[in-house]
Specification:
alpha+beta; Nuclear Transport Factor 2, Chain: A; six-stranded mixed beta sheet; 4 helices; globular; NTF2-like_dom_sf; SnoaL-like domain-containing protein; SnoaL-like
Length: 188
Protein backbone atom coordinates (compact mmCIF):
# COMPACT_ATOMS: atom_id res chain seq x y z
CA UNK A 1 0.00 0.00 0.00
CA UNK A 2 2.82 2.42 0.86
CA UNK A 3 4.49 1.81 -2.54
CA UNK A 4 1.19 2.57 -4.26
CA UNK A 5 0.88 5.85 -2.37
CA UNK A 6 4.49 6.81 -3.23
CA UNK A 7 3.78 6.09 -6.92
CA UNK A 8 0.60 8.17 -6.86
CA UNK A 9 2.40 11.02 -5.08
CA UNK A 10 5.22 10.97 -7.68
CA UNK A 11 2.65 11.03 -10.51
CA UNK A 12 0.79 13.89 -8.86
CA UNK A 13 3.99 15.92 -8.49
CA UNK A 14 5.04 15.15 -12.08
CA UNK A 15 1.61 16.18 -13.36
CA UNK A 16 1.71 19.41 -11.33
CA UNK A 17 5.15 20.27 -12.68
CA UNK A 18 3.89 19.77 -16.25
CA UNK A 19 0.84 21.98 -15.58
CA UNK A 20 3.20 24.65 -14.19
CA UNK A 21 5.36 24.26 -17.33
CA UNK A 22 2.31 24.90 -19.53
CA UNK A 23 1.35 27.95 -17.47
CA UNK A 24 4.93 29.25 -17.54
CA UNK A 25 4.83 29.01 -21.34
CA UNK A 26 1.73 31.25 -21.41
CA UNK A 27 3.37 33.76 -19.07
CA UNK A 28 6.59 33.80 -21.09
CA UNK A 29 4.66 34.33 -24.35
CA UNK A 30 2.46 37.09 -22.93
CA UNK A 31 5.35 38.97 -21.31
CA UNK A 32 7.63 38.50 -24.37
CA UNK A 33 10.13 36.80 -22.03
CA UNK A 34 12.41 34.82 -24.35
CA UNK A 35 14.82 33.89 -21.54
CA UNK A 36 12.03 32.17 -19.64
CA UNK A 37 10.65 30.63 -22.85
CA UNK A 38 14.08 29.14 -23.62
CA UNK A 39 14.19 27.51 -20.15
CA UNK A 40 10.97 25.59 -20.86
CA UNK A 41 12.25 23.53 -23.81
CA UNK A 42 14.94 20.88 -24.03
CA UNK A 43 17.77 22.01 -26.37
CA UNK A 44 16.72 19.48 -29.04
CA UNK A 45 12.97 20.16 -28.71
CA UNK A 46 10.74 20.78 -31.72
CA UNK A 47 8.06 23.43 -32.12
CA UNK A 48 5.38 23.63 -34.81
CA UNK A 49 3.61 26.99 -34.94
CA UNK A 50 2.17 26.50 -38.43
CA UNK A 51 3.11 29.18 -40.96
CA UNK A 52 5.14 31.10 -38.35
CA UNK A 53 7.62 28.30 -37.77
CA UNK A 54 8.24 24.56 -37.72
CA UNK A 55 11.59 23.19 -36.52
CA UNK A 56 13.89 23.42 -33.52
CA UNK A 57 12.23 25.29 -30.66
CA UNK A 58 15.38 27.30 -29.90
CA UNK A 59 15.31 28.67 -33.45
CA UNK A 60 11.63 29.58 -32.99
CA UNK A 61 12.47 31.40 -29.75
CA UNK A 62 15.22 33.30 -31.60
CA UNK A 63 12.49 34.55 -33.99
CA UNK A 64 10.00 35.54 -31.26
CA UNK A 65 11.11 39.19 -30.91
CA UNK A 66 10.34 39.71 -34.62
CA UNK A 67 7.07 37.74 -34.47
CA UNK A 68 5.88 39.47 -31.29
CA UNK A 69 6.97 43.01 -32.22
CA UNK A 70 3.56 44.06 -33.65
CA UNK A 71 1.62 42.38 -30.82
CA UNK A 72 0.48 45.02 -28.33
CA UNK A 73 -1.45 42.43 -26.29
CA UNK A 74 -0.96 38.69 -25.92
CA UNK A 75 -3.20 36.88 -23.45
CA UNK A 76 -3.06 33.06 -23.30
CA UNK A 77 -5.57 31.18 -21.14
CA UNK A 78 -5.34 27.44 -20.48
CA UNK A 79 -8.69 25.72 -20.08
CA UNK A 80 -8.82 21.90 -20.33
CA UNK A 81 -5.65 19.94 -19.51
CA UNK A 82 -5.30 16.27 -20.47
CA UNK A 83 -1.97 14.70 -19.49
CA UNK A 84 -0.83 11.08 -19.72
CA UNK A 85 2.35 10.10 -17.86
CA UNK A 86 4.68 7.23 -18.72
CA UNK A 87 7.78 7.32 -16.52
CA UNK A 88 10.01 10.21 -17.60
CA UNK A 89 7.91 11.05 -20.63
CA UNK A 90 4.40 12.39 -20.99
CA UNK A 91 1.95 13.73 -23.53
CA UNK A 92 -0.60 16.50 -23.17
CA UNK A 93 -3.55 17.88 -25.08
CA UNK A 94 -3.92 21.40 -23.73
CA UNK A 95 -6.92 23.55 -24.67
CA UNK A 96 -6.14 27.24 -25.05
CA UNK A 97 -7.84 30.58 -25.66
CA UNK A 98 -5.34 33.10 -26.95
CA UNK A 99 -6.14 36.77 -27.54
CA UNK A 100 -3.83 38.85 -29.74
CA UNK A 101 -4.05 42.58 -30.40
CA UNK A 102 -1.86 43.19 -33.43
CA UNK A 103 -0.69 46.59 -34.64
CA UNK A 104 -1.11 46.92 -38.41
CA UNK A 105 -0.71 49.78 -40.90
CA UNK A 106 -4.51 50.21 -40.75
CA UNK A 107 -4.53 50.32 -36.93
CA UNK A 108 -4.83 47.63 -34.25
CA UNK A 109 -6.78 44.45 -34.97
CA UNK A 110 -7.96 41.71 -32.59
CA UNK A 111 -7.57 37.97 -33.03
CA UNK A 112 -9.05 35.46 -30.59
CA UNK A 113 -8.03 31.86 -31.21
CA UNK A 114 -9.49 28.76 -29.63
CA UNK A 115 -7.17 25.85 -30.06
CA UNK A 116 -5.02 23.20 -28.52
CA UNK A 117 -1.38 22.42 -27.93
CA UNK A 118 -0.29 18.88 -28.71
CA UNK A 119 2.62 18.44 -26.35
CA UNK A 120 5.29 15.85 -25.67
CA UNK A 121 7.28 16.32 -22.47
CA UNK A 122 10.31 14.58 -21.08
CA UNK A 123 11.96 14.70 -17.69
CA UNK A 124 15.72 15.05 -17.89
CA UNK A 125 18.04 15.74 -14.98
CA UNK A 126 14.98 15.89 -12.72
CA UNK A 127 13.14 18.62 -14.69
CA UNK A 128 10.14 18.39 -17.02
CA UNK A 129 10.42 20.38 -20.25
CA UNK A 130 8.83 20.40 -23.68
CA UNK A 131 10.34 17.98 -26.16
CA UNK A 132 7.76 18.75 -28.89
CA UNK A 133 4.90 21.23 -29.12
CA UNK A 134 2.42 21.63 -31.99
CA UNK A 135 -0.21 24.37 -32.15
CA UNK A 136 -3.67 23.41 -33.39
CA UNK A 137 -6.28 26.08 -34.24
CA UNK A 138 -9.88 24.94 -33.77
CA UNK A 139 -11.51 28.32 -34.41
CA UNK A 140 -10.63 32.00 -34.75
CA UNK A 141 -12.52 35.26 -34.32
CA UNK A 142 -10.97 38.22 -36.16
CA UNK A 143 -11.87 41.88 -35.67
CA UNK A 144 -10.10 43.95 -38.36
CA UNK A 145 -10.58 46.97 -36.04
CA UNK A 146 -9.76 46.40 -32.40
CA UNK A 147 -12.64 46.42 -29.91
CA UNK A 148 -10.25 46.73 -26.93
CA UNK A 149 -10.85 49.92 -24.95
CA UNK A 150 -8.30 50.45 -22.19
CA UNK A 151 -9.44 54.08 -21.77
CA UNK A 152 -12.92 53.06 -20.60
CA UNK A 153 -13.82 54.82 -17.31
CA UNK A 154 -14.73 51.49 -15.68
CA UNK A 155 -11.03 50.55 -15.53
CA UNK A 156 -9.75 54.05 -14.70
CA UNK A 157 -6.90 53.79 -12.19
CA UNK A 158 -6.31 50.07 -12.87
CA UNK A 159 -2.87 48.79 -13.69
CA UNK A 160 -2.69 48.01 -17.40
CA UNK A 161 -0.81 44.93 -18.63
CA UNK A 162 1.93 45.45 -21.19
CA UNK A 163 4.33 43.17 -23.04
CA UNK A 164 7.87 42.87 -21.76
CA UNK A 165 9.38 44.46 -18.68
CA UNK A 166 6.95 47.41 -18.82
CA UNK A 167 4.28 45.07 -17.38
CA UNK A 168 3.36 46.11 -13.82
CA UNK A 169 3.93 42.55 -12.56
CA UNK A 170 7.68 43.12 -12.63
CA UNK A 171 7.43 45.88 -10.06
CA UNK A 172 4.74 44.16 -7.99
CA UNK A 173 6.23 40.70 -7.48
CA UNK A 174 9.44 39.80 -5.70
CA UNK A 175 9.11 35.98 -5.97
CA UNK A 176 7.82 35.67 -9.56
CA UNK A 177 10.75 36.96 -11.55
CA UNK A 178 11.39 37.53 -15.24
CA UNK A 179 13.20 34.62 -16.88
CA UNK A 180 12.39 32.15 -14.08
CA UNK A 181 10.05 29.19 -14.00
CA UNK A 182 7.33 29.22 -11.35
CA UNK A 183 7.88 25.54 -10.50
CA UNK A 184 10.71 23.20 -11.05
CA UNK A 185 13.19 23.42 -8.23
CA UNK A 186 14.64 19.94 -8.30
CA UNK A 187 13.92 18.21 -5.02
CA UNK A 188 15.15 14.63 -4.98
Amino acid sequence: MELLNETKLKQLLDRQEIVALVNDYCNAADRHDQEKMRSLYHPDALDDHGSFFSGLAMEFIDMLPQIQAPMAILHHNVTTVNIKLDGDRAEGEIYILAFHQINTDEGPMDLLIGGRYFDKYSKREGLWKFSHRAVVADWANLHPRSIVNLDNPIIKGSLIGKPGTADPSYEFFSLLKRGERSWGDVIE
